[in-house]
Amino acid sequence: MSKNLSRLVLITIGLLISSVVILSSPDSVIAHGDMKEIHRGTVENYDISVSILPHEPIAGGFSHFTVEPKEKISLESIEEAKITLIIRKGEYAYKSRAVNSPNSPKLYDANFTFKEGGVWDVEVQIATIPDESTIMNFPLSVSGNSTKEGREAGIFFLFVFSILIVGSIILTLRYRKKNT
Question: 44, 74, 110, 120: which has the fewest C-beta neighbours closer than 10 Å?
Fold first, then answer.
């Protein structure tokens, strides 16, 4: 029994050390690393640049947008703005608030998943003064066909869930104390 207990303690300590090392390591992935600028425009008092990852968005795939607003005349970055992105195509319309972070206050990020391929209309709304917004529109080509509605995720969930339940039952039956 003490051999199993010492093995369990060593495994627990190993997992704790691994977790600390992984969580305390410097950020190796940068969200704004390899962005592709898909549109740059000047609207009213703003110079707005919109970039995307992946470079070629696909239907059913995750897309990360970054908006970088600047003052039109001074080209000084704007760190306090309310930016909203809206994408539309036919009957589909999605809205996401683009937010900045303390690590990158000049860049505003939003995420979307495109339902189908084709040309989508992207609308960028920016407001630095409450109740006064400026709108910029541009088209975005998304490759691929419509995403299919499938049961794969549900089947995978049931598979994992059943493994957890069956594994718990097996461990319980194997290691429970027998009443004598």
Answer: 74
Rounded distance, CA 107 to CA 20, Å?
Answer: 29
Token pair in block for residue 112 = 């979307």
Number of residues that this document lists for the chain? 180
Tell me the pTM. Answer: 0.63
Please name the amino acid found at residue 21.
Answer: V
CB 56 within 8 A of CB 95: no
CA distance 145 to 38: 21
CA distances from 97 to 50, 65, 68, 130, 154 (A): 14, 11, 14, 15, 29
**What are the distances in angstroms from CA 14 to CA 8, 10, 23, 24, 129?**
10, 6, 14, 15, 52
SS3 state at 63: strand
Please write the tens of the pLDDT for every residue from 93-127: 899 999 998 888 999 999 988 888 889 999 999 98
